[in-house]
Amino acid sequence: MRCRLCEREVRSEDETLCKYHRLARDNLKECYNAWNDAYSGITWAEYLNRVKTLEDTGQWIRDVISLEEVQH
Description:
The protein is about 60% helix and about 0% strand. The chain is mainly α. The longest helix is centred in the middle third of the chain and has 20 residues.
């Protein structure tokens, strides 16, 4: 099976993302709670929009954000 975003191998048939995009997705979700606290109830969509516009946001995170935006 291949990653939905980059065509790298995934570790099991239950997975849809490679280890790099999976880690990026997990980190993105974990950091949302801190942003939600800091920005008084920021929505998931607002959070994704802000993170993707940051200069230091890496490509794997940007890939995951693109996927999340399509899914929501």
